[in-house]
Structures are given as structure tokens and as C-alpha cells.
Model the fold of this input.
Amino acid sequence: MTAIEAKFVDAVSAARESEASWKALDDLAGAVVGHKLFTVMTVDMAAGLARRAYSNQPAEYPVSGTKPIHRDAWFDIVHLERRSFVANSIDAIAEVFPDHALIASLGCGSVINLPIVLEGDLVATLNLLDVAGYYTPERVAAAEAQLAIPARLCCALALRFDAKQAGPG
Done:
């Protein structure tokens, strides 16, 4: 086990709330591929809603509220095909994200959205953003190979922690 993996395992093992499990994944993603902005969006397909569950820049991208899921080309790639969406310019990002101006203002011009699937259902997306052109095929391959299982683990933990916090019901 590498030092990076050991740090992730220790952090996840010590986690007692969703925020801590997502922070462990944030740190792992930063070490594996790098990012300026890291968020996790959970999805409720039955309700047609997405919710930001974690953000490493909460002032700009707060964890709050929900937004409707839009069925477009991005949706087809991530939700239906269960493939990563990658864009390496702000123009490509602007084609699918209405908040492209905010993304650009943070110095970001590339994105990877990794689908997180549990029990056969897409339950969340892991979103990494950095400077234009940053997510090369090699970095995308590293993200997909090294973050897919940790993302599922952290998502399962977050769901468990959230259920415990909600209490019996």
C-alpha cells in the first residue's frame, strides 16, 4: 500500500460523518490527479433532483439545497452510459454547465465528472475541476482507475452516516 492509500484508509476508518469521508476522498483525488475544485453531487432520480453533498470551496459552491436534473448530452454520458464526462476548455464546459462563468472565475477550465454507482444505480457524481487542458487522457485514466472504488466506499459511508443522523423513521 502506498503512503497516499494508507492516508486515505486511515482517514476513512476514522470518519464518523459524511463530511469526513468526502474530505478523505477529496485528499485522495488531489494526490492522485489534482484539482482546484472538488465537489460531490448526489442524485435522486425518482425525485429528479441533485444535491451538492460536499465541496472543497463552500463559499463559492455551498453544500445546500437541490437542483433539478436536466436531461441533456452530459446526462446521457454520465447518467445513462455511466461514463466519465471530460471537458478541457471553458467553452466546452459552457456547453453543459450554466455556472461556467463562476467556474472560470475560480481559474478552472477543465472538468472530470465521474459517475458513482451503487447497487446498479447512479447515486452521485465526483466532480474535479482544474485549469484548462489539465485532464489529459492519462489523468482521466488515473482518476477512473484509482478513484472509482474509493468513491463508492465514501458514498456508501456517507449514506450510512446520513441515515444514522436522520434516526429511526
Observations:
- The helical segments are 3-14, 18-32, 73-80, 90-94, 100-105, 137-166.
- Residues 116 and 124 are 5 Å apart (CA to CA).
- The chain is about 45% helix and 25% strand.
- The chain has a mean pLDDT of 94.
